[in-house]
Amino acid sequence: MDSLATGVQGFVALLARLMLVAIFMLSALGNKIPQFSATVDYMASEGVPLPRLALFGAIALLLLGGLAVISGAWTRIGASFLLIFLAAATFYFHDFWTYRDPSQDAQQQVQLIHFMKNVAIGGGLLMLVGFGAGPWSVDGWIATKEAEAAGAGQRPRRSASKDKNRDKDSSDE
User: Fold this and answer.
1) How many CB atoms lie under 10 A from the CB of residue 54?
2) What are the CA-CA distances from residue 163 to residues 1, 152, 167, 168, 170 (Å)?
3) Phi and psi for 5 in degrees, rounded to 5?
């Protein structure tokens, strides 16, 4: 029964990691890399300091964090990378609080929705930081092997009296 629960947990955690990371990988591979110059210009218009350097950093965070979370290798670090990217992107690009003119109410509402979406995604990333990737991950596999190795080193040995009795029995033959 435990193996079934572990299997279900592993599958669900893997599926959740894939779903959570899809937006980040698509952002890097489908938008930021192929449209690098246009993205730099947009970042500059939004007030991002050193936009070219910031974009290189953003792409690195997205790809390294995304691959780490997908594979479940160094998951907590990868999720932290994505969380850093998400916090910066949310601050610069979904700043609903800057819309003060009533004629911009619709735009403020759109940015608030994007802001809250990012807060929800951040919650999922924090779960990964706190609880890890689950059993179907590189981190989970390493933890299992470490537990097996620790358990093998703590197996009870035969007592000396049992060894003497065994030796005595075999000498009687």
Assistant:
1) 17
2) 37, 20, 6, 9, 11
3) -60, -40
Average pLDDT over residues 141-166: 71
Which of 135, 33, 129, 26 lies closest to 77 in space, CA to CA?
129
Amino acid, res. 155:
R
The pLDDT > 70 percentage for the chain reads: 87
Count the alpha carbons within 13 Å of 127 in the hemisphere toward its beta carbon: 12
Please report where in the chains the tokens 């620790």 appear, as a residue. 150
Angle at 119 between CA 135 and CA 36, to 5 degrees: 90
Query: Quick check: 47 and 92 in contact, CB under 8 A?
Result: yes
User: What is the CB-side half-sphere exposure of residue 52 using CA atoms within 13 A?
Assistant: 1
Contacts of 72 (CB under 8 A, 6+ apart): 14, 17, 133, 134, 136, 137, 138, 139, 140
DSSP state of 80: H
31: which 2 tokens? Answer: 């938008």
| Residues 78, 69 contacting (CB under 8 angstroms) | yes
Full-model pTM = 0.82
Kindly list the domain boundaries of the chain, sorted by start residue: 2-155
